[in-house]
Automatic annotation (TrEMBL):
Cofactor: Mg(2+)
CDD domains: CysQ (cd01638)
Residues holding Mg(2+): 62, 80, 82-83, 184
Descriptive protein name: 3'(2'),5'-bisphosphate nucleotidase
The keyword Endoplasmic reticulum belongs to this UniProt entry's keyword annotation: no
Species: Lentzea waywayandensis
MF term (GO), any: metal ion binding
Phylogenetic lineage: Bacteria, Bacillati, Actinomycetota, Actinomycetes, Pseudonocardiales
UniProt cross-references to InterPro entries, sorted A to Z: CysQ/Inositol_MonoPase, Inositol_monophosphatase-like
Highest taxon above the source species: Bacteria
Amino acid sequence: MFGLVATLRCMAESDAELARRLATETGRLLISVRPGDGDHVAQLFLAAQLNEHRPGDSVLSEEAADDPRRLAADRVWIIDPLDGSREYAEPGRTDWAVHVALWERGELVAGAVAVPALPRTPRISHRRLRIVVSRTRPPAFAQRVAEAINGVLVPMGSAGAKTMAVVRGDADAYLHAGGMYEWDTAAPVFVARAAGLHASRVDGRPLVYNQPDPWQPDLLICRPELAGVLT
C-alpha cells in the first residue's frame, strides 16, 4: 500500500508541470548561490527531484555520467542544470539558463527553459532581422546568411537564452553550427515548437534525441516564415 501511495504522489504533477517547476526552482537556486559552483548545485537538486518524482525514468545530463540503460528506456529526462556556465560566472550577465526536457518513445513531450537572471523588459521593435549566434563560436557562414536576408548577428551565451530571445520576439532566428549536445537543445527545441516556431538542423533535417552519442552538429530555430529562407 505504501508503494502505491508513493507512486500516486509522484504522478500528481504532470510531466509539463514538473518540467516547469524544476526549471524555475533550479533557476532560483542558482541565483541564490551565484557565483558559486552552480553546475554542481543545480545537478544535485535536479537529480534528487527527478529521483523523487519520476523514480522509474532515465536521465541524460551534461553534469552526470551517461547511463547506457537510457537507450532501452521509454522515458528519458534530458537536462542541462546550468546552460551557459561561462556567462553565469560573469557578473551582470543574464544569458544563462536551465534546461529540463522529457523524451518519450522517440519524441520530446515536455520541456521548460528558465532564464532567471533576465529582467522583464518591454519588447523592442527592430527594422532588421536579428539572428542570435554563439558569442564564442558563431558559425563561419552566419555573416553571409545575415547579409542575404538583410539581417544582423546578435552574439549571446546560453542556447536556452538564445532560443527564448526568439520565443519572446526579441530575435527572429537562432543559428548554430560546430556542434552541441542533446541537453543543449532538447528543452529549447520543445519550448520553441510549443510557441509555434520552426526547429530543425540547419539543412532542415529533423532533430533526434536519446541517441547513443548525444552530439548534435547544428541547430536552427526561427520564425516559421523564415524556415524556407534559412534552411
